[in-house]
Specification:
heterodimer, A: alpha/beta, Alpha-Beta Plaits, 2 domains, six-stranded mixed β-sheet, four-stranded antiparallel β-sheet, disordered N terminus, B: mainly alpha, binds adenosine-5'-diphosphate, binds magnesium ion
Chain lengths: ~325, ~270
């Protein structure tokens, strides 16, 4: 396992002191009737690592996580979580897992602090012991002012942070987050990311799903691109980009873009993809095309470095946002 | 929260085998406590209304049943039917809300608790509520002189057993319900006939033979046969049979509810 390279200088992904992987899946498959939703996937996640599962809606991300939690029996394959077989030992593994589910399952019958208290009770944590812990968690989630508020009065971002705080009541070894920031505004998302980085820096293993490439790129040591039940490739975000796409991208869009492409405008690119009315030119050297575009006032264009979104497009032929 | 360690927390303790239902039960108790005054009012207020209206109103027409004033006869039956109704309502509408609408069960089984723990906790809670309402009827019954003698205290565990039986049956219905409308079938086709044909309002002996035979398979019949003599003072005929029938229903329905809930939740 490799750490994500600088500039972020995160700690190494693999925890050498703890050789038992956080997660180990072999040939894991789930079928619903005729439909194969998770199609024989293999994965190993080290302790202390943050692993991201990046894929569009319906790729099978939630189903994979449900199997990890022992909530969905696999059709085939084997799964070990924190060293224990799942689903056989899933009650024992869940004692050491925190889950932030895709859809909030906060208890609307209780206030913020009561939610934490009741959830701690499900783990067998006594009220006395939970007291100090819950105060810490409220601070961590920035919800101290909302301690006695009913759930219905919380914003989307607050609910997510409470879901995160709740997932930490058992001080888990493995934190599982299913699309933790879907539907959040940029500030709320930044705050959540920052909290997740804090947890990671303390050595917690993180498994998260997302369909935001930016989220995967920022948080994860390693990312797996998933589509239609398959794990297409797994590596650090930087190496996925380096392996699958040219480093520079010039996006040309507008009504004339396709015509420009048809007339050979993008011939200087190493590779071209067309998504809707956007022409994506992948190149090692962007200068010739940028020079040429400056002489075409009718075209709008954007020059950016390649990212995971481009990797997804390359691997599946589809745009992650619309897939 | 710099104090939170990143390793396994020592305070997480697994419940001793078979006690995983306790935190589920306690969650429902904590919520109930918020509404306790209203809930207690209903537990006492409803039987007062029913016993006064039916007991005295109808009692004036029928006089007595087998030498007992009608309101005395009725109160002992109401102890059972109120245990049944409370258990049924809690384990259908309320439990369904937690299961399907609020995703409370989903949250619970993301922890070390299993589906079986959740099912047993819900049954235990609905039983607890039915015990509260049966006790409410008993208190009102005592106030109007319908409780005769200390042996009536034995009717409380009998009412709890009745609540257990109907909680478990109702939870079976909940685990296969597709919407709240599903419960209309259950209440109309099962609960209402049971309410009317189990000897709560009138002695079974005056019913047609066929109905009497049907009534012997209804759990409420056995609950009434157990509770009524205890409350009005008299000897219970075949107490073990009645207890066995109620326990049999409770055990079978609990096991079935757990199985169906697993099928529904672990897909
Ligand atoms: N219980 C189920 N029964 C049948 N199909 C299901 C079930 N759960 C999920 N699916 C299907 O499996 C596919 C993957 O779903 P999911 O794992 O939720 O994807 P993702 O989380 O990546 O959006 C979808 O096509 C979904 O309809
Ligand atoms: Mg999903």
């Amino acid at each position: 396992m490799n750490a994500r390279p600088a500039p972020d200088s995160l700690p190494p992904a693999a925890d050498a002191a703890n050789p038992v992987p956080a997660l180990e899946a072999r040939g894991l498959r789930k079928r619903y009737g005729e439909q194969t939703v998770v199609d024989g996937v293999d994965m190993q996640v080290a302790r202390g690592e943050c692993w991201g599962l990046l894929g569009p809606n319906g790729a099978g991300k939630t189903t994979f996580l449900r199997m990890v939690l022992g909530r969905t029996p696999p059709t085939e394959g084997s799964l070990r979580v924190l060293g224990l077989p799942v689903p056989e030992a899933s009650a024992a593994t869940r004692a050491r897992i925190g889950l932030v589910p895709q859809l909030d399952t906060l208890d609307p019958d209780f206030t913020v602090v009561e939610n934490l208290r009741v959830y701690a009770g499900y783990f067998g944590i006594r009220a006395r012991e939970a007291h100090a812990l819950i105060a810490d968690l409220l601070a961590f989630a920035n919800l101290e002012a909302k301690a006695d508020a009913p759930i219905s009065t919380l914003s989307g971002g607050m609910k997510r942070r409470l879901s995160l705080a709740r997932a930490l009541v058992n001080t888990p070894d493995l934190l599982v987050l299913d699309e933790p920031t879907t539907g959040l505004d940029p500030q709320a998302r930044q705050l959540l990311w920052q909290r997740l980085r804090m947890l990671k820096s303390r050595g917690m293993s993180l498994v998260l799903t997302t369909h935001y490439m930016e989220e995967a790129a920022r948080l994860c040591d390693r990312v797996t691109v998933m589509d239609r039940g398959r794990f297409l490739d797994t590596d650090t975000p930087a190496r996925l980009v380096a392996r699958h796409v040219e480093p520079q991208v010039v996006e040309v869009h507008g009504i004339d873009a396709l015509e420009w492409h048809g007339a050979g405008g993008a011939d200087a690119a190493d590779r071209v993809e067309v998504v809707g009315d956007t022409v994506l030119c992948y190149l090692r050297d962007e200068r010739p095309i940028l020079d040429a575009l400056r002489d075409r006032p009718g075209l709008e264009y954007l020059h950016r470095p390649a990212n995971l979104e481009d990797v997804f497009l390359r691997l599946t032929g589809r745009d992650l946002r619309d897939a | 929260m710099s104090t939170t360690p990143a390793t396994s927390a020592p305070h997480v303790r697994s419940y001793p085998a078979g006690l995983g239902w306790v935190p589920v039960w306690r969650r429902n108790l904590l919520f109930w406590r918020k509404l306790a005054p209203a809930s207690m009012l209903a537990n006492l207020g409803e039987p007062i209304l029913y016993l006064l209206a039916l007991g005295y109103g109808l009692g004036a027409l029928v006089g007595g049943v087998g030498g007992i004033p009608y309101q005395v006869f009725l109160a002992s039956g109401f102890i059972c039917s109120s245990a049944m109704m409370t258990a049924t309502f809690e384990a259908t509408y309320s439990a369904y809300t937690r299961m399907a609408a609020q995703h409370t069960w989903d949250a619970m089984i993301s922890t070390p608790l299993g589906v079986g723990d959740v099912v047993r906790g819900e049954i235990a809670w609905a039983t607890t509520k039915s015990l509260m309402s049966a006790t409410g009827v008993m208190v009102v019954g005592a106030a109007i002189g319908a409780v005769r003698g200390w042996q009536a205290l034995l009717a409380i565990p009998a009412a709890a057993l009745t609540g257990l039986c109907f909680s478990a049956i109702a939870l079976v219905v909940t685990t296969i319900a597709r919407s709240y409308d599903s419960f209309l079938y259950y209440t109309t086709l099962v609960m209402t006939p049971m309410f009317l044909l189990s000897g709560v309002f009138f002695p079974l002996a005056q019913m047609p033979e066929a109905i009497q035979r049907l009534a012997t398979v209804l759990p409420l019949t056995h609950a009434v046969a157990l509770v009524r003599p205890l409350v009005i003072g008299g000897s219970v005929e075949a107490p073990l049979l009645h207890v066995a029938v109620l326990l049999g229903y409770a055990a079978t329905a609990s096991a079935l509810a757990a199985r169906l809930a697993r099928r529904r939740m672990l897909v």
